[in-house]
Amino acid sequence: MTISSKHFYCLLAITTATLWFVSVQAQSTSDTQHYRLFSMGGNRPGYRDFATSPLFYNGTGISLSTTWLKRSNERERSIDLSLRPGWVSAQIPESDFRQPSSSAFFLQMSFRYQQLRKLKSVSNEKQNIKIGGTFISTQNFRPNPNLQNNSLGLENLTNLMVSGQIIRDVSRTKERTLNLFICKPKLKPVKRDLRFQLNAGLLNFNYRPGYAYSRAGEINGVKTNPLSWQLSNYNWSMNGWRFITELEWITYQPNGNARSWAYVWDAAHAPGKFEAFQVANHNIRFTYYFNSKKR
Question: Which CATH class is domain 2-27+37-291?
Fold first, then answer.
């Protein structure tokens, strides 16, 4: 379903206002922790865009992000900004004559807001289950000189997602001694959590071109805005799907900070108005949690 920009921004404003109102109404509890997160890791992106070519592009890159997290036993709220630059190459069938090649720079910038609340009926002392919603907007930049008139690939993926999270307490509560024959190191008690989260797209919007990128709008002299001219063939559509999963191992330190390793999988399918865009990211990241007493 194709929607106008006016209707899209109206719906976006209503959604943002609703999530903000709910977050303001949520009261802090005595166990509320405030964290500032810094993450970095390796990323393996892959995509294909039928508006230019059915070929798969795969490559490697890095991921960087910063997050403001407010977490308690009852509620959780976070704001995340992330950047994923990378370099990809087309998977072209081998030729016996002349082997073609095509490479592109692939950059993703994302903003995410999340709100979760505990499900008391299925939670217990060992595991905390929360459900809620996530709003995420991702802007892609895909310059590829080999595509000539279609060299600049742009699209926006904006999703309102339903989210479910399970945090399992896997702490070592007692001191443990390892028998390694040569030495017997002692492992001290430590607080640890194993966290899994699934986000599934409920309302999936994408800002995509028409039949192909090579169509350009009319040039109206000096009044032409370069960005408006480039995006003159773009339309907002509500279709497709997006899923994001996160598996994270968190270890807490005595000073209140924490460290974690996580595997994040993010995949989306955006049919747009005519031709589809498909993308997936496999991300292994390291995160440091700075415990902040201030909000």
Answer: mainly beta
146 contacts 157 by C-beta, under 8 angstroms: no
Residue 225 vs residues 57, 151, 230, 234, 295: alpha-carbon distances, Å: 31, 19, 9, 15, 41
- Please list, in sequence order, all residues whose beta carbon lies within 8 angstroms of the beta carbon of residue 180, skipping any fewer than 6 positions away: none
Q: Give per-residue burial for 91-115: e unless 16+ CB within 10 Å, then b.
A: eeeeeeeeeeebebebbbebebbbb
For residue range 106-115, list pLDDT tens digits in order.
Answer: 999 999 999 9
How many helices (H) does the chain have, and how many strands (E)?
Answer: 2, 14
Compute the distance between CA of residue 39 and CA of residue 198 in angstroms, rounded to an integer.
Answer: 19
What is the C-alpha to C-alpha distance for residues 154 and 141, in angstroms, rounded to an integer?
5
DSSP string, 211-275: S-TT------GGG--HHHHHTTT-EEEE--EEEEEEEEEEEE-TTS-EEEEEEEEEEEEE--SSS
Phi-psi region of 173 (alpha: psi -120 to 50; beta: other; left: phi over 0): alpha
The answer for 15, left when phi > 0, alpha when psi is -120 to 50, beta otherwise, is alpha
pTM above 0.90, yes or no: no
> 3-state class of 96 per DSSP?
coil
pLDDT in tens, 106-160: 999 999 999 999 999 998 989 999 999 999 999 999 998 888 878 888 899 999 9
Helix (H, G, I), strand (E, B) or coil at 10: helix
The span from the CA of 199 to the CA of 263, in Å, is 14
Instruction: For residue range 221-277, list pLDDT tens digits in order.
Output: 545 666 666 777 788 999 999 999 999 999 999 998 999 999 999 999 999 988 899
Task: Answer whether 148's CB lies under 8 Å from 138's CB.
Answer: no
In this structure, what token pair is assigned to residue 166?
């399970």
Residues, the chain, total?
295
